[in-house]
Amino acid sequence: MSQLLNMESVSVEFATAKGIVQAIRDVSFSIEAGETVCLVGESGSGKTVTSKAVMRLIDDENGSISAGSIRLSGVDIARLPRQALRSLRGKKMAMVFQEPMAAFDPVFTIGRQIVETIVRHDRKTTADKARKRAIDLLQRVGIPEPELRLKMYPNELSGGMLQRAMIAMALSCGPELLIADEPTTALDVTIQAQILQLLQELKSEFNMAILLITHDLGIAAEIADRVVVMYAGEVVEQAATTELFAEPHHPYTQGLLQSITAMDSDRSKRLYTIPGSIPSLSELPSGCRFHPRCPYATEQCAGETPALINREGRQAACWHVDRVVAAARSKPEAPSERSPVPISLSESESARLPAGEPRSSADVLFEVRNLTKHYPYGRSMFPGNRKVIQAVDDVSFTIRRGETFGLVGESGSGKSTLGRVLLRLEKPSSGSVRFEGRELGALSAAELRAERKQMQMIFQDPYGSVDPRWKVGDIIGEPFAVHGGGTAAEKKEAVLELLRLVGLGPSAYDRYPHEFSGGQRQRIGIARAIALRPKFVLADEAVSALDVSVQAQIVNLLQELRQQLDLTFLFIGHGLNVVRYVSDRIGVMYLGKLVEIAPSERLFRQPAHPYTKALIASIPVPLPDQKRRFAAVQGEIPSPASPPSGCRFRTRCPLATDRCALEQPEFREVTPDHAVACHYPAD
């Protein structure tokens, strides 16, 4: 293979209101033709800036390459004038963004934008030929009815389909290098598997090199030939994927790998976490930038910056590589694990496992019977003819006191709607929801307001759920103001105790949300949710947007608070490994229906429904020596406005028969405490 991209000692600076900020420093790595290289690291490590530097997109963001060279097929991109750069973008290199709507203009059709890209880079191509190529590309990336999709606008396509369309546009001029920046982060595990499988196939078909940016090490293990690890704007390690996963040479890499929540993570133990958080670029520590969080740190680490040293074909920037390797060989865990959560629990309490066996079925906190939530749309003079979106349809289950009930399924399955209806944030169309035996629908507004003290919520986006103009002390103290009780001094003391409980110091009281990292903001959201000591907490995708290391911190915190405060959780997520780790029982939803409920371990070891099996098979496995073809469920979830007849999963199910199209399967118990809605459940 020949070298396609070579970054040599690249530094990037941005002009800000507070002066010049160096975003990446002395970054060096290369990519061979036909090779896949993954950039990994926490948010703020410099991955995206590095990828944008390759495309010179930083020019539009007050950024500049202050040092080094970026050579693509021998041409130094860092020194190219803008006009020459435009001819390389699209033709020699192309980019797939995390948010596909950022790549498409919402006022033009998908077809017009792909055709325009082709014609711009190939003046000899007519619009008719470009259109035919656009149809071929859409078909190649797995979009059904490509002629019809060409005429659609970006907002008319689902997230997975829009991501495929963006890949088609990126491939339209046959680039040699495809840069993919977190292309699957916002996607469900099934669609993620489809996209990753597609990238692998396209790489072989077009002989492309791929630079993939991700914080999911499972994806890196599945797809990458080599991995480059970045921390606080620097490369700290790079190696072949199998070598890096088998024997990391840098403590940060070691910490990232240990923070992964895997299918076999021991639920009796706390998840490993890297203490602290990534530093601000304006307040970088001296010496090794990782030393404040490193279990191997010495005075040398604090005073001297380690160089990126070559060792037998791999590189690491650490003064103590030998100690790191020796510790890993002698013991699978790092020499010390500092808990980031200063909660006073006894050893027995900290080690306690989320209950493997369910509590008595009589000890029920929530009882849901035939719950339905339909949203009418369109207009009709006759009520019987109104069309509805069937977000939740005839769902029945219970949540037992003190357990964590997990809820999984693709976007559009009805998980979040079900959670909101449980809390009466939305009224059900029909059905019954009982909380501690009381029918919530029968309560008056005043009674429901009082009952809500016992039912709280943790949101996916903590920043979007608070007023950015409020200080943290006011945000956490709001429940006390709403529900009354206590003097101002008592409320402040309670807020300070909550900050301590979630691992934030008293200094957070007078600061604003924007001054905190994503993980810290989530802790603020958790503090507000538990302020009134509720009995039940709904965690709706509470960790899905977090880096793997921060995710582990928040999961540990939730587990400890559950034990200490005797909480009951409904944990909604699409990260199946995390849901498995925290949950006692798990419900699987598909297109508004519950299709399976079982104890956590049993569901993962013996799934009975084909959809559950497909979800589990789509999970990336962080074992590069066991690379596999992604066993993804085909197609996308149908519209809840017009679900299929019979079994709603039948249009994507490999086991479907004529009976599945005609007859809706009954939700029934197949073994004790294990229920499934399928005509042909697995044994």
UniProtKB/TrEMBL annotation:
Tell me which Pfam families the record gives: ABC_tran, oligo_HPY
Entries under SUPFAM superfamilies matching the protein: P-loop containing nucleoside triphosphate hydrolases (SSF52540)
Among InterPro entries, the record links this protein to:
AAA+_ATPase, ABC_Ni/Peptide_Import, ABC_transporter-like_ATP-bd, ABC_transporter-like_CS, Oligopep_ABC_C, P-loop_NTPase
Q: Where in the cell is it found?
A: Cell membrane
How is the protein disposed in the membrane? Peripheral membrane protein
What GO CC annotations are associated with the protein? plasma membrane
Q: Which residue range or ranges hold the ABC transporter domain?
A: 5-257, 366-616
Span list, region Disordered: 329-356
Task: Indicate where this protein is primarily found.
Answer: membrane
Molecular function GO terms recorded: ATP binding; ATP hydrolysis activity
Question: Which keywords accompany this UniProt record?
Answer: ATP-binding, Cell membrane, Membrane, Nucleotide-binding, Transport
Biological process annotations from GO: peptide transport
Family per UniProt?
Answer: Belongs to the ABC transporter superfamily.
- Name of the protein: ABC transporter ATP-binding protein
Organism the protein comes from: Paenibacillus ginsengarvi
